[in-house]
Amino acid sequence: MSIKIDEITRIITEQIRDYEMKALEVDVGEVVSVGDGIAIIYGLRDVMLSELLLFSNDTYGIVFSIEEDHVGAILLGSDKGIREGEKVRRTRRVMDVPVGDGFLGRVVDPLGFPLDGRGDIEEAGRVPIEARAPGVIDREPVSEPLETGLKIIDALTPIGRGQRELIIGDRQTGKTAIAIDAIINQKGKGVYCIYVAIGQKASNVAAVVDKLFVHGAMDYTIVVNATAADAAAIQFLAPYSATAMAEYFRDLGRHVLIVYDDLSKHAAAYRQISLLLKRPPGREAYPGDIFYLHSRLLERSAKLKKESGGGSITALPIVETKGGDITAYIPTNIISITDGQIYLEPDLFYAGIRPAVNVGLSVSRVGGAAQRHAMKKIASLLRLELAQYRELESFAQFGAELDERARAAIAKGRILVEVLKQRQYKPIRVGLQIVELFAALHGFLDGVPRNEILSVIGRLESYIQENHLPLLDELEEGEFGKEKETKIRDVLSGFNWGV
Prior knowledge:
Helix content is about 40%, strand content about 20%. By secondary structure, it is an alpha/beta fold. It has three domains: about 30-95, Elongation Factor Tu (Ef-tu), domain 3 (Beta Barrel), CATH 2.40.30; about 100-370, 3-Layer(aba) Sandwich (Rossmann fold); about 375-495, Lysin (Up-down Bundle). An eight-stranded mixed sheet has the order 8-12-11-13-14-10-15-16, sandwiched between helices. The protein has a six-stranded antiparallel barrel with strand order 1-2-5-4-3-6. It has a two-stranded antiparallel sheet with strand order 7-9. Helix 10 packs across helix 12 (about 430-440) and helix 12 (about 430-440) crosses helix 14 (about 470-475). The model has no long low-confidence stretch (mean pLDDT about 90).
């Protein structure tokens, strides 16, 4: 017993003798004021912008502004239990988000926590939500198509991998529907998708998730959800967190499609935070750096060179307009950042023309470089026919007498408008689009009554998929010449048009 006591005494004596006191530097600040999801803190030295702070009720905050004598932070949780005079600790860690393949098929909040009740998510690591956009040297020109499955877009405003194409229009004109169709169309194409809901109704987001599940698209999709009920800080973080998740896949050499729905609500959340922090308001009360808010976000979407991994992020930002005014502050900002826009017009939507794309105001500045050759040839003729139709139809509305040639152009234009209509959640492969547009442009639908065109097109799709699948594969690859054109004519000539 004495031996054991002596041994214990010796060990304790050695530990006391070898003990070295180390000073642990902990920066602690004091809450000056708190409310509306904002905290003003005094006493934090050398704090970093976007650094995480820990409050007394275990709520985290992010350093949002650094002033001469205080720091402004946005809270990532409730401000209940946080009082003036309480201590705030630095974490010396900037805001980051978990990433990994485990997030595919899940609905998460901007902090990476699951919202779908399906348990924890396995992480592959954590990355900062803010990252520097790829440099010009690391980028590659847009050269690969990213089809949406919608005829009017893939033909007239095509999108390529690495492009940023704005979807813009009034409320309830089908903006989200286009984005969801684009996600559904990526099935089996090796493209991962991220849908970011910013300030949307929870019921609307649930409906989107349900549609993605029904069409088998959730297997390769992540939904990042910051609803209208969430704090402005959470809505502000959502697109940056989602882009960080997209960059994880891009850096592995994969391809990503990300939908921001929508950035006008994101700008409003940023304005709210900025005004609470007493930043000087500018036009429409937005802070002076509102352009930088979205430019630093959308510049992260790009196609990388093979030497840099070869991955890509394609962005479809959505912006809501008021009364069709695309010259408003936020829409013009984002139009100047993106590589083109798809403009949805309310009058077309209410007239039953869906997707309600105004082809005159819609443009793709780089997607044509990635368009398949056959579609490019068809689209050039389609664009000319539609332009003639719009011009002549305006004359016809005033009762002007038109010659035979003008009446024929109007009749052809009306057929094209019908063929370009498409049901929601029914994207079709690009080979079928080429055949359908070819049929409309070359007179195969001239004898079909206007109200029967869509049903005839539906029969044509079934006929080709059942009997001529190799033709679609041929049209989607290589050059489009006389030989392929002859094959299309032979197939269409053998179809029963029912007229």
